[in-house]
Structure to design on (306 residues):
């Protein structure tokens, strides 16, 4: 069924101009705000907890604006299947590329970290075009083998190397002679609350993935946060901020706190562009959280002595 939908419906649609695709998703937006409220309870619950002091009308406005942006992302996701290299370059501009250029000149590999904010899929697909570093994306495979294959084929069209999370060390070892930028989206819900870094995020105690920080210390890669801002429909601007050029000098949690707070700042600035439909806070807070943090810090400092 997935194969039929892809070749009969999705792929042909992707050859249409983006403004035409927006017409289809404009209609879908009307359905979302009337008779098909996609994940309404999840979205409302996330917004309620994240903005407890906002009025009811303000929270509703965020939800409706999110649906509008969500349908834009669907149109742009369909277009991504057949978009050209020129098209990617026209839709994404980097405001301060000198940050990555300087790291490349200094022979530094980079972990480029952010979240599911604005059109992250266009960044996944276009990252190798934007910078001199070889782009590598680390993730877990989708449950559908067909969609996993097709999506990764498309993500790789412009040079992005997609790597399974369990095999990334071997892939990096095979590319020792290349300077690399590893893309990490660190705002999804972690699989294990006991292995997560716990911190305040959007007014609630939140389990945060520790992978970016752990990789930075293990590999001695510089860490750069990118903010992706929507200039207008289909046009995005990326701004880079160096978090650490010497991660092994950073204490436990420092890198994770920094990139998570930078993402939070972007969400508060324009909340409609974050993926509110994701079940972000589904992990239970450990019973003895303070003891867990002490143990995590001790293990970290034992592995990475200052």
């Amino acid at each position: 069924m997935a194969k039929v939908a892809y070749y009969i419906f999705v792929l042909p649609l992707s050859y249409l101009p983006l403004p035409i695709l927006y017409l289809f998703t404009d209609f879908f937006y009307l359905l979302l705000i009337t008779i098909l409220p996609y994940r309404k309870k999840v979205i409302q619950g996330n917004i309620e907890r994240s903005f407890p002091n906002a009025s009811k009308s303000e929270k509703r406005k965020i939800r409706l604006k999110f649906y509008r942006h969500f349908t834009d992302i669907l149109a742009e996701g369909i277009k991504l299947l057949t978009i050209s290299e020129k098209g990617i370059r026209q839709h994404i501009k980097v405001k301060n590329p000198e940050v990555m250029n300087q790291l490349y000149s200094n022979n530094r590999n980079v972990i480029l970290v952010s979240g599911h904010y604005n059109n992250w899929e266009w960044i996944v697909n276009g990252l190798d075009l934007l910078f001199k570093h070889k782009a590598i994306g680390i993730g877990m495979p989708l449950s559908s083998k067909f969609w996993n294959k097709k999506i990764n084929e498309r993500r790789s069209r412009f040079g992005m190397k997609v790597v399974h999370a369990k095999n990334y060390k071997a892939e990096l070892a095979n590319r020792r002679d290349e300077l690399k930028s590893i893309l990490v989206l660190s705002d999804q819900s972690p699989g294990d609350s006991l292995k997560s870094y716990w911190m305040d995020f959007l007014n609630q105690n939140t389990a945060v993935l520790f992978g970016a920080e752990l990789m930075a210390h293990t590999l001695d890669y510089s860490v750069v946060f990118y903010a992706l801002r929507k200039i207008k429909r289909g046009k995005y601007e990326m701004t880079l901020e160096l978090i650490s050029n010497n991660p092994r000098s950073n204490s436990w949690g420092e890198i994770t706190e920094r990139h998570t707070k930078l993402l939070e700042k972007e969400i508060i600035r324009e909340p409609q562009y974050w993926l509110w439909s994701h079940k972000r806070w589904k992990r239970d807070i450990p019973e003895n959280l303070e003891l867990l943090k002490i143990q995590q810090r001790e293990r970290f400092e034992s592995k990475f002595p200052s």
